[in-house]
Batch of 3 targets.
Target 1
Amino acid sequence: MMKTFAELKYPGRLIAVEGLDGSGKSTQIYLLKRWLEVQGLKVFFSEWNSSELVKSATSKGKKQELLTPTTFSLIHATDFADRYERHLVPLLRAGYLVLCDRYIFTAFGRDITRGCPPQWVRDIYSFAALPDLTFFFKADLEVSLSRILDGRPQLKYFEAGMDLRLSSDPYESFRIFQGRILEQYLAMSGEFNFLIVDANQTIEAQQSVVRSLVAGKLDLPSFAWKSADHAKPANLHPKT
């Protein structure tokens, strides 16, 4: 039975956000991070697929379309394991609030949708503890699509699931692929106690919900910086 970091008696707490591409989750966790920092709390941020150990390999594989669903899954698992052991666990032991833009549930959703065996995917990540809070930002597919295209001219090959040959039209492929991932997320929501946020709402309305839940479920003052604490670690910055 997987346990949360609180159940494992870690002094820190991990908050994760999940959602489809274009759901607005990255914006929400960035706003949450700033809000917590303003209160003088110990905060660290980490995002999916950002380990320097494997970042270049992932980028090269994507550009040359060399990645099968299995290699895609294993590369992301390597990225996560590296960050988990070198950043997340040490900082949770040091009493930090660790914020993660995507966690193991991204792999559960994407890799299974790409055809990897569900139990095989879960076994790969069995070393990881569960977040103490997991927010799932549930947005309509058309809302997610429009948000992505507001920021750039076209969809990315893999976010549209073009590698699965679902449709020659990238927009239709996106709807099919992300729709299937959404089904996986919804199937997981009860099992992993997702806090579901209506991501069709305004940014401000969503952030109000997130802050209220975080403040209500965590003892935030206990994560304040103390004079005996060491220098703050350099944070990674979320993509805009």
Target 2
Amino acid sequence: MATRRQAREWAFQMLFQLDANPVELDALFARFRNETRPPAKARDFAEAIVRNVAANMEAIDGMISRHVKHWRLSRIGSVERNVLRMAIGEMLYHRETPPAVVINEAIDIAKYFGTAESGRFVNGVLDTIRKELGIAEDDGKNVEAGGKPPAIRASQG
């Protein structure tokens, strides 16, 4: 039985693939399903994260760029960049999970696929973004059913 952690790892891997080799989402998902044979619930969660990130990439990347001083987005390592995208997407569009859980999972995934420094970097960026969004650390239900996440500003440059 796949866990949400496994689904997040799959979402990260799909985002990493998209970053390196952009393809249509349906083709990416078909390959993912054929290679991993994930249970439906985990598959749906992973694919939802990827769809939300892909649909809001410019705004999510703008958020990241505002919080990494003296670094262009392209200079951030692929592991860190895509873990950040995944976690921000989950904090914005899957609000049932408390941000502390999302951030801890992102740190663990960054350390697993990257380095210990990756985890520290991801932690710092995500915590400042969480604060910018006005989301309390333990707040997992701050958007009513059918509600919208907080507005995010597009990158200024």
Target 3
Amino acid sequence: MDMIIDFPGGARVDAHFGPYTVSTDQPPAGGGRGMAPTPFAVFLSSLGTCAGIYVLGFCRQRNLPTENIRIVQRVHANHSTGLVDSVDMEIQVPPEIPEKYHKALILSAELCKVKQQMATPPEFNITTRSI
């Protein structure tokens, strides 16, 4: 998948792919206007939303209600580097989801491709080219 990254003004940086645009910005303290999440926040949100896709799919396959299910994601960062040390995800389920499904919900969330990719980081090749 190709993405085009551009700089629409201020500290904003946007990614365009297919029919979508993901907008990012920096908070005012970082020189931005805080009009969109930071790129790192978008990255972190992809963990929870990816896990959510698998939880949603599990529930739909079993005709389980999803209206009151939510995932609470807690990120624990190293204060000196700002990098993530650990991520906790708590799948909160209403009483109408039988206990027998709880472990399977966890296993479903662990299928997340973003999580799997983090376990095997890609090689990065960064170059420049005059246009």
